[in-house]
């Protein structure tokens, strides 16, 4: 509080004066949140009960046996019921906080309020998760299980999985070879774009033009043009390659353009003082790139590189336009034979499954690199 | 004939004239300190000597050979003229030993074992042999700067350029770096230093040059420059340094 002395000037607070802080006020009432948590928990339990009772009945109708169908009902309902625990905690803690405020025990009131809010947030967060699960279950059971039968027909999944997995090796072959080619080709293009000096202007122009064209052209069109165009061209060697090789060439050209830009960004992100240091020791421009700049750039671009690689892996599904029997083409054949999309679900699943370990692997190597070179 | 002859060089960045007919001679085994206000061209002059910057007119000769202008093999020049930077600029992805042996291996074509055999005594000399397999980011600033000096020395240069090598260091780390420079001076290494460490400049240098107005405004032995400068501008500069408690 400002205090005016006789002279009318603001008096400076003395050091031993007790100052009051805004945080000294009583904590806000948390009971609104607690009530919300309780309502959410009860709602989720009811919704889970209704949903998974239906799921259990469907399972029983399939002849999955009493144990499976009752598990299908009781496990989710039990999990939903667990929400009651934080909800009740939130309510009781909130009440304790109010009691503490009434008794002017601010410290306890703050602790209890914080804890009540925490429990309430837990409840609402997990309730949101349950909403997603229940909605998904409802979707799959909608229209008397029509959705499940279309996308997740168990017998068809079972039948198509080995065939599609076998065809998936074609995708793996294409993207592994293409990724190796892209790594080399992208670096060549990036370095060509960055060569300094007036005399190298034409080289830079070629590299820029290439990047502009192939980054702009849809991958499916590049695959189409190369896959059908080269055999028709009658050029020696180039006309007799396998469909997979055409796919590799097309994907290398497309993704080489992306990756060249990633490399370029990485190289340009290295501070010029590193170039000065290397050149000052007598290293040539190319030696500086080779030993000092590119090794540092590569470490920085691993995450965006993985992005482009995952893009490349997914785009191997486009090779079906030139008739390669890859996983997607195989799945399309199966799904038109059985008039059901479950085989395509298998392909989707396979593509997702292969990317996850790669992401974790990249996280791991980055972490290890950091531990090795960064200070303590 | 002086070892380094800088004759009447001029250079400008856009409208800013860094050098306006600057001339300077450095004899072999001399230690020359460049002092002057920020932006007076101390660092630029060192970078020109090493071919990292070009000049607009005039010429620089080392042992009578012109090292500026078209047709000069800058890579060959840099083998003989080493430079150490204010911000160390070690290669963070290489160990200390790899930093030191990179240029001997790749530029001079020495086998790795030979380069290592030459590098280890140098690291020993600066007391960092036990850090040979450490990465630069794990070293203190003073240690990094000592490694940077050794990296330049590993090429066995005729001339060593030191560009404000203690400016980025915590005060208690400055001495460990300056001791190495002192040793090198005692060994007869020809050195040019851009520095703000006036006390050190006074102690170690055989000649001090005060740069101002794109020229060497005043040069002479340290006792004269620091003790009895003849030029008003030099005296004013030194006065400010004294006021800042740096001399």
Automatic annotation (TrEMBL), chain B:
GO molecular function: ABC-type amino acid transporter activity; ATP binding; ATP hydrolysis activity
Xref: SUPFAM superfamilies: P-loop containing nucleoside triphosphate hydrolases
Gene3D superfamilies named among the record's database cross-references: P-loop containing nucleotide triphosphate hydrolases
PROSITE patterns: ABC_TRANSPORTER_1, ABC_TRANSPORTER_2
Alphabetical list of Pfam families matching this protein: ABC_tran
Domain of life: Bacteria
UniProt cross-references to SMART domains, sorted A to Z: AAA (SM00382)
Entry keyword set: Amino-acid transport, ATP-binding, Cell membrane, Membrane, Nucleotide-binding, Transport
GO cellular component: plasma membrane
Subcellular compartments: Cell membrane
Membrane topology note: Peripheral membrane protein
Annotated family: Belongs to the ABC transporter superfamily.
All residue ranges annotated as the ABC transporter domain in the record: 4-238
Annotated protein name in UniProt: Amino acid ABC transporter ATP-binding protein, PAAT family
Segments passing through the bilayer: none
């Amino acid at each position: 509080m400002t205090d005016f002395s006789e002279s009318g000037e603001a008096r400076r607070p003395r050091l031993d004066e007790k100052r009051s802080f805004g945080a000294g006020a009583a904590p806000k009432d948390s009971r609104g949140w607690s009530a919300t948590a309780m309502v959410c928990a009860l709602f989720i339990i009811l919704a889970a009960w209704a949903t998974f009772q239906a799921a259990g009945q469907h399972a029983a109708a399939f002849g999955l046996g009493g144990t499976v169908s009752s598990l299908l009902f009781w496990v989710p309902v039990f999990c939903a019921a667990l929400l009651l625990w934080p909800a009740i905690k939130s309510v009781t803690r909130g009440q304790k906080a109010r009691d503490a405020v009434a008794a002017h025990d601010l410290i306890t009131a703050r602790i209890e309020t914080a804890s009540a809010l925490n429990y309430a947030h837990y409840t609402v967060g997990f309730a949101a998760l349950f909403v997603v699960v229940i909605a998904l279950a409802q979707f799959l059971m909608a229209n008397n299980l029509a959705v499940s039968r279309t996308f997740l027909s168990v017998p068809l999944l079972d039948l198509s999985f080995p065939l599609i997995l076998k065809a998936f090796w074609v995708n793996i072959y294409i993207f592994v070879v293409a990724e190796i080619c892209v790594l080399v080709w992208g670096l060549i293009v990036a370095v060509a774009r960055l060569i300094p000096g007036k005399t190298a202007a034409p080289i830079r122009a070629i590299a820029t033009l290439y990047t502009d064209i192939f980054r702009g052209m849809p991958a499916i069109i590049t695959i189409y043009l190369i896959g059908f165009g080269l055999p028709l061209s009658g050029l020696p060697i180039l006309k007799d390659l396998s469909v997979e090789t055409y796919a590799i060439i097309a994907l290398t050209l497309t993704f080489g353009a992306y990756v060249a830009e990633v490399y370029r960004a990485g190289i340009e992100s290295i501070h010029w003082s590193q170039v000065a240091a290397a050149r000052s020791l007598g290293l040539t421009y190319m030696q500086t790139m080779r030993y000092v700049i590119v090794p540092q750039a590569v470490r920085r671009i691993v995450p965006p590189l993985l992005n482009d690689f995952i893009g490349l892996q997914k785009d191997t599904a486009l090779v079906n336009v030139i008739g390669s029997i890859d996983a997607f083409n195989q799945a399309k054949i199966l799904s038109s034979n059985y008039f059901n999309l479950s085989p395509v679900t298998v392909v989707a699943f396979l593509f997702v499954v292969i990317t996850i370990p790669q992401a974790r692997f990249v996280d791991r190597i980055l972490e290890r690199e950091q531990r090795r070179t960064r200070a303590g | 004939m002086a070892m380094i002859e800088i004759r009447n060089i001029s250079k400008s960045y856009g409208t800013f004239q860094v050098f306006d007919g600057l001339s300077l001679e450095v004899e072999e085994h001399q230690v020359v300190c460049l002092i002057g206000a920020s932006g007076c061209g101390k660092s630029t002059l060192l970078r020109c000597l090493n071919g990292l910057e070009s000049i607009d007119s005039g010429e620089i000769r080392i042992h009578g050979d012109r090292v500026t202008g078209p047709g000069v093999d800058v890579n060959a020049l840099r083998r003989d003229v080493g430079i150490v930077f204010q911000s160390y600029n070690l290669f963070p992805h290489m160990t200390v030993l790899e930093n030191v042996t990179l240029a001997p291996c790749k530029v001079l074509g020495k086998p790795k074992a030979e380069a290592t055999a030459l590098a280890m005594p140098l690291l020993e000399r600066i007391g960092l042999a036990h850090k040979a397999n450490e990465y630069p980011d794990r070293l203190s600033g003073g240690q990094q700067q000592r490694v940077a000096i050794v990296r330049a020395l590993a090429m066995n240069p005729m001339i060593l350029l030191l560009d404000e090598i203690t400016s980025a260091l915590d005060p208690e780390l400055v001495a460990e770096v300056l001791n190495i420079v002192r040793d090198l001076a005692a060994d007869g290494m020809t050195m040019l230093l851009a520095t703000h460490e006036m006390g050190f400049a006074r102690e170690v240098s055989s000649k001090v040059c005060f740069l101002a107005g794109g020229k060497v405004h005043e040069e002479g032995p340290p006792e004269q420059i620091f003790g009895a400068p003849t030029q008003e501008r030099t005296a004013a500069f030194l006065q400010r340094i004294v006021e800042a408690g740096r001399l």
